[in-house]
Design brief:
single chain, alpha/beta, Rossmann fold, GMP Synthetase, Chain A, domain 3, 9-stranded mixed β-sheet, 5-stranded antiparallel β-sheet, 17 helices, 30% helix
Length: 528
């Protein structure tokens, strides 16, 4: 079935597309609970949230001028009510919200600031030293703390004069999301008002989110999952958003089990799902009230899926990205999870998907190709990067760089990143397949494989393996485990036992860092 808006170059504009969704919800359900903040116990109804956004928009206009015309407002802060208030106020005032990854250091943040040149930087006191260090990247930038006090963000919002939304183009930017940097070079993904609306709508279908939903968000708002998929979707559909400023397994499990919060939806990356399962406070009863436990952002192992299924919890896998939001999802149904192991599911309803070969031709069912996407949730491109934008699109289709296949039942699977595939002895090798084999070893907690030059075979693999606490497996034992499960050309030429594997906030392995460790290494693979 073709997506609802398939073939439409520009779906009809309306207030819901151009304005922030809080306006509508405050009109139709003003007294409905909108936000609850775990750290402080504060909560807001939709009417109170709308009023706070209006005052924040007034503060922005007073500080930056009556018409923002795309002025950037950056935020270096953990999840909080006012993080979202500022995000929606930027849209209402005509500014562009730029949430910064607080896990990055000053050296990594300076080029991002220089690229987007924000007029205002808001920061938590926790990151005050970093904010001071990076402020020089944009000499005219104003800085403001979220700390309590006369000059803090909260006080400025409360003193703001409420304003309504400025006239806006649905295709004007409202958010810049800097990619997590798995290639080492973050790019500012432009999210327009139209993109944000349809990305949230796609996730609402995938997650079956509505006015009765209560979603817990402890994933950071600097990522598309936290800011768009969970937060924006829940508020746009009239649900209640429970905000946690950080993930800790015990606190998250306590929140999920709390009957007063009555959480129905939780989104996690696989590493978080694993951390919850391994925490001493874990119990299946804590998750019994969930309508949906959605996982995405990185590969999900079958062992982890099965461990949750055994406890009566179906981990619903999905696939998406900053550039398009939700693209694929497994239905919220235990049978669908059981019958489609390793799948990322069916296409989101408001998105076209193709799988093509290197010449741009669609591949046959079951064959591997690159995912191309098209639809109203897809970004128009990257901030200040016309060449990268042009390279990312072909005939209006966004080229994801991800390889996958479509099964006979219409379910899709991700095989590998195009840039991570390597060729050994003329054979394509997909590191994700090797990592999946490594994950079946009982002593392996985490694993990542990269290809390196090899004088005989062209390229061979190095496997970086993290053992579970107390595990005693050796590299030789793990190599034997692989030999029983993989063809010779797929087996890693070397297995390194390491303490940790570098990952982004969404759980993706930063393979450019692993390759940096072995820039000139040449390996010899056993020809057997």
């Amino acid at each position: 079935m073709a997506p609802f808006f398939s073939g439409m170059a520009s779906p009809v504009d309306c207030g819901l597309v151009k304005d922030d969704p809080i306006l509508y919800r405050a009109r139709v359900a003003p007294d409905r609970p909108a936000l609850f903040e775990i750290a402080t116990g504060r909560q807001l109804t939709y009417a109170a949230l709308d009023a706070r956004v209006a005052r924040c928009a007034g503060f922005l206009q007073a500080l930056l001028g009556p018409r923002q015309d795309g002025a950037r407002v950056a935020m270096l802060a953990r999840n909080a009510m006012d993080s979202l208030v500022l995000a929606f106020a930027c849209q209402r005032a005509g500014a562009v919200y730029v949430p910064l990854n607080w896990r990055l250091n000053a050296t990594e943040l300076r080029p991002i600031l220089a690229d987007c040149a924000p007029a205002l930087l808001v920061h938590d006191e926790e990151f005050a030293a970093t904010a001071e260090s990076i402020a020089g990247a944009v000499p005219q930038m104003t800085t403001l703390s979220t700390a309590e006090g006369r000059d803090g963000l909260a006080a400025r919002i409360e003193a703001g004069v409420p304003v309504g939304p400025v006239p806006a183009d649905a295709d004007a930017a409202c958010v810049l999301l800097y990619t997590s940097g798995t290639t080492g070079q973050p790019k500012g993904v432009i999210i327009t008002r139209r993109n944000a609306f349809f990305a949230a709508l796609n996730f609402s279908f995938a997650g079956e989110i509505g006015p009765g939903s209560v979603a817990l968000c402890d994933l950071p708002f600097f990522h598309t999952i936290g800011l768009i998929a969970v937060a924006r979707t829940t508020l746009m559909l009239g649900g209640r958003l429970v905000i946690s400023d950080r993930f800790t397994p015990a606190r998250t499990l306590a929140a999920l089990a709390d009957p007063q919060l009555a959480i129905t939806h939780y989104f996690a990356v696989p590493q978080i799902a694993l951390a919850l399962r391994d925490d001493p406070t874990y119990s299946a009863a804590a998750l019994a009230g969930l309508r949906a436990f959605i996982v995405g952002g990185a590969p999900l192992t079958q062992a982890l899926t099965e461990s949750y299924l055994a406890d009566g919890v179906a981990l619903v896998n999905g696939y998406g990205m900053s550039e398009a939001g939700t693209a694929l999802h497994v239905p919220i149904d235990r049978r669908a999870v059981e019958d489609n192991p390793g799948s990322v599911g069916l296409p989101a309803p408001l998105l076209d998907i193709r799988i093509v070969d290197g010449e741009g031709r669609e591949v046959k069912e079951g064959e591997i190709g690159e995912f191309w996407l098209r639809g109203p949730s897809v970004t128009p491109g990257y901030w200040n990067k016309p060449q990268e934008t042009a390279a990312a699109f072909t005939d209006g289709w966004y080229r994801t760089g991800d390889l996958g296949r479509r099964g006979p039942n219409g379910f899709y699977s991700i095989v590998e990143r195009l840039k991570d595939m390597y060729i050994s002895g003329g054979e394509n090798v997909y590191p994700a397949e090797i990592e999946a084999a490594l994950a079946t070893h009982p002593d392996v907690l985490d694993a990542a494989v990269v290809g390196v030059p090899d004088s005989r075979w062209g390229e061979c693999g190095i496997a970086h393996v993290v053992l579970r606490p107390g595990a005693t497996a050796t590299g030789e034992e793990i190599a034997g485990h692989c030999a029983a499960r993989l063809a010779a050309f797929k087996r890693p030429a070397r297995i390194l036992l390491v303490d940790t594997i570098p990952r982004t906030a969404s759980g993706k392995v930063q393979k450019h860092l692993l390759r940096h460790f072995h820039p000139d290494q040449t390996l010899q693979r056993n020809p057997s």
